[in-house]
Amino acid sequence: MPALPDAFVQAITDQFPPDFASVDPQDLQTYGRDWTKVFAPAAAMVVLPRTTEEVSLLMALAYAHDVAIVPSGGRTGLAAGAVARDGEVVLSLQRMRHMEPVDVTGSTVRVQAGVITELVHDHVSEFGLTWPVDFASKGSSQVGGNLATNAGGVKVIRYGLTRQWVLGLQVVLADGRVLELGGALEKNNTGIDLRQLFIGSEGILGIITEATLKLTRKPGHLDVMLFAVPDLAGVLRLFRALRQAPLQTMAYEFFTDICLRRVLLHRKLRVPFATKSSHYVLLEAERAEQLEDWLGQLLEQGLIDDGVIAQGSVQAAELWALREGISESLSATGTPHKNDIALPIAALEAFTAELGAVFAQQYPGWEIAVFGHVGDGNLHINVMKPDEMNMADFLEQTHAADALLFSLVARHHGSVSAEHGIGLLKKRALPYSRTPDELALMRGIKQLLDPKGILNPGKVL
Amino acid sequence: MKILVSAKRVSDPNARLQVAKDGKWIEGDVEYVMNYFCENAIECALQIAESQDGVETVAVGIGDEDTARFIRQGALARGIDRGIYVAAEESEIDSDLIARIYEGVVHRERPDIVLIGKQAVDGDSNQVGQLLAEYLGWPQATFASKVELQGDEAIVTREVDGGLEVIAVSLPCVITADLRLNEPRYASLAGIMKAKKKPLEELEIDDLDLDDADPKVKVVALSTPSGRKAGVLVKDVDELIAKLRGEARVV
Count of CB atoms within 10 A of residue B89's CB? Predict the structure, then answer.
């Protein structure tokens, strides 16, 4: 692990307030990792700027002294994109949490990158508005991290990804220059959209310090339903019916009985159905007059075996807990190997059938917990470690299994990382979804914006 | 045997309410849910009906127009046989009038048991079951956490301060349901579809020939809880202890 240059450390001490940097071992541990626990953190320093000027000055110094920087938000990522494992300086934006007053007419708000996602929701809520970037970690994740990873979540079917909800960006480049991209304009066709280049770049092209977020009206009363369906084909048939329904869908999530069993092992929840099913669908939609008639048709047409509607927010939360408790329950009751893939919706059924066949043959007896968002083709495939297998064997075998899985994803024109990003964890997988030409272009862009390779080195490419 | 159960809608306890401009009621886009204790009463009636033959269950809801939807979705969809909706302005009825309305319905229906939620989670009055038993001259078993029928008696376990009390009341009787009585079932889709065809009678207060149909309690003012004071960051443990001692006086 290379030590930080003395001149850089001296400059930090000279040019910033005393609480700007920390080398406290506890801080280095905390700020050096994200929600992935695969890599041991080994940061050399943590810096906590309060302003864009401080970020700019820091980057100019890092550029001059060839110091590697790992940008850091709420560290809730699942691809080790915010992990510092090689003596880097972690640049945490958590002190940059100023929010400007909401522009109600323009439906926008300007915020600093360190603002926690949920606080944006609270800030704009009284005007009947929301920033529709929403997922389980919204209480910890930060706007800068949401943007840098182009975060997804359970509402993507309704609102799309984070990149659709950003009008302007302020970015600090590797050498400290500050770019203002886009401002608050909805329409701005003036050449290449550089703003979108930084969104989803996982901190390898620049540091996002501020953003003008696009807002939308808060949804009305929501109905939450859970359906039992016989198989994945049934999940897709129901989804087709939903596409034609007079409903504004907010979420369409599915999970298998294997997931549900793990949730019930871990948490004291009840299943609202008397009979077991192999597949379940959670539907959230804005309240509509026609809902009951539509549900009646589903029953008549045999599209669902059983179903319930939550009466009130308590039951709605109970139904959501069955879905949102999956990830946590898999980790609490076993050792999952996680994959986050996306496929064209039309290919989902053929893909899962092939996947089942391949795994049954190559890895008999392995428990595979599949759940996902369906509406956007996103499947979370969790391979559970068989109890009797040791960890080293499991890692080796999942490595080989991943190659099979990724080839299958590629053959069906899918993506090897739907919403978690690439970070350190998915680098091997990237060539399955991107061609050599595309990768060469990405490297060219990286070289142009970060010629010294000091921004989040080792990530993505 | 016939069981009458309450089906009251309440403003969602998890929603933030807005006080109306006159300061006497709530306004805006209020989300309503079935009163939790009524859900327990409904579940209890259903379990009795499932455990023996010849039990008819009837849900009674009093309130604004939307109450009829709650009777259908929250009671009939779960399995209650039929409903009675009594139209009333919710801002103009008090616990006493509600008890008298129930009394009127009881005279029409002649049930063996009236199962009522022990209180509404919005108004928190906890009076209707007790008043009704008094007006009917029936025995009452409040705060029930267990109900068993034996012949012409109901054996009811009551949650009282510091423990449980088991009492026997003769039928007909009034029982008020507590939260631990049972775990209310979800309304299934099949149930919701069946509920559409179940009878739901609509009544006005005038239809019940009450001797006294005037409310006795007036709401003078409503207000929202005062906001919490912002927290402060302390520099170290010493400052924290000093503040706990000096300002908060808790240590």
Answer: 11
Name the residue among B14, B39, B187 with its Cβ closest to that of A313.
Answer: B14
Nearest by Cα to A280 from A250, A299, A253: A253
Interface predicted TM-score (ipTM): 0.77
Cβ-based contacts of B15 with chain A (< 8 Å): 313
| All domains in chain A, ordered by first residue | 6-95 (3.30.43.10), 108-217 (3.30.465.10), 222-327 (3.30.70.2190), 334-417 (3.30.70.2740)
DSSP state of B206: G
B75: closest chain A residue by CA: A311
Would the pLDDT of A275 be above 90? no
Domain count, chain B: 1
Given a contact cutoff of 8 angstroms between Cβ atoms, the answer to whether B129 and B142 are in contact is yes
Mutation target for A interface from B16, B189, B193: give the one with most A CBs within 10 A.
Answer: B189
Task: Decide if A308 touches B, using CB distance below 8 A.
Answer: yes
Average pLDDT over residues B217-246: 83
Total beta-carbon pairs less than 8 A apart between chain A and chain B: 56
Closest CB to A307: pick one of B73, B183, B189. Answer: B189
Other beta carbons within 10 Å of B137: 7
| Strand order, beta sheet including B187-188 | A336-342, A378-384, A367-372, A249-256, A279-286, A222-229, A306-309, B187-188
Residues of B in contact with A268 (CB under 8 A): none
> Distance between CA atoms of A149 and B96, rounded to whole angstroms?
59
Chain B residues with CB under 8 Å of A292 CB are 192-193, 196
Distance from CA of B29 to the nearest CA of A (A): 9
CB atoms within 10 A of CB A270: 11
Contact A209, A93 (CB under 8 A): yes
Q: Give the gap in angstroms from C-alpha B121 to the nearest C-alpha of chain A.
A: 13
| pLDDT at res. B250 | 79
* Alpha-carbon span A151 to A168, nearest angstrom: 17
**Please, which residues 313-332 of chain A have a Cβ atom closer than 8 Å to chain B?**
313-315
pLDDT in tens, A167-210: 999 999 999 999 999 888 888 888 899 999 999 999 999 999 99
Work out the pLDDT band at A152, boundaries 50, 70, 90.
confident
Domain containing B222 — which CATH number?
Answer: 3.40.50.620
Region A261-282: mean pLDDT is 90
> To 10 degrees, the CA torsion angle through A442, A444, A446, A447?
160
Distance from CA of B19 to the nearest CA of A (A): 15
Provide mean pLDDT across the span A268-283. Answer: 89
Query: What domain range includes position B46?
Result: 2-248
Question: What's the mean pLDDT in A264-286?
Answer: 90
Minimal C-alpha gap between A222 and chain B (Å): 10
A296 and chain B in contact, CB less than 8 A: yes
